[in-house]
# Entry
Amino acid sequence: MADKNPSDPHGFKRRGVLFVLSSPSGAGKSTIARKLLASDDGLSMSVSATTRPIRPGEQDGVDYHFVDLEKFREMATNHEFLEWAHVFDNRYGTPRAPVEEMLSAGRDVLFDIDWQGAQQLYQLAGGDVVRVFILPPSMVELERRLRGRGTDSDEVIDRRMARAAGEIAHWDSYDYVLVNDDAEQCFEKVRTILQAERLKRSRQTGLIGFIRKLQS
Ligand code: ADP
Ligand code: 5GP
# Structure
């Protein structure tokens, strides 16, 4: 599914990385995703479609494509999603075409999706997918962050907290598991993971030509 990726370290072609960040809501994955995108010009965000109502401060087409249920169903029926899932009584899905375009353009793609999406993407693209799970330092801190964000009603926060333990239960289907205590340190770890994954031999499809030249 991934296309050739003209990039580091010596201009070798390589396969694009599908880099997945998941966490219980409020653990800080959007904050890490924002920092990662700002610090890395080879990475693009996959913007999901969702039926959930827009939050204050969110922008349609930037944070999500906000669509109604009818439109979402139509997209699912037309196979426009790489994956989709029910989360918190709403539907969320990853539009296929932009991801394919980004990979074709030689970019890596960042996904902020839940464990169901990570599982579906892995079934589809296997070794091109890198899955990172972010844990909060404690459940008390998770609730503090959800309340501190100031974007959800008490009822929505209670539902997110009620689901958090169930999401955390999927920690062992991820390649990397990090505790987001200090935001900067956690971000640096995520960045290191991405850089190391890009350097994996199995992704460096252009390496063989270079090796042959070295040997000739
Ligand atoms: P998620 O995307 O996982 O739902 P967010 O990135 O929106 O979580 O973070 C939830 C809230 O917690 C935000 O207000 C954010 O500023 C704050 N936050 C994120 N990471 C940390 C951290 N390491 N320490 C303290 N607060 C944090
Ligand atoms: P939120 O409503 O807080 O933005 O997101 C709720 C949950 O939905 C988060 O766990 C987020 O990772 C997940 N999510 C967002 N977009 C997608 C998507 O396209 N597919 C899947 N499976 N989950 C998503």
The radius of gyration is 18 Å. The first strand starts at residue 4 and ends at 6. The pocket of adenosine-5'-diphosphate (ligand 1) is lined by residues 23, 25-31, 145, 148-149, 180, 182-183 (CB under 6 Å). The chain has a mean pLDDT of 93.
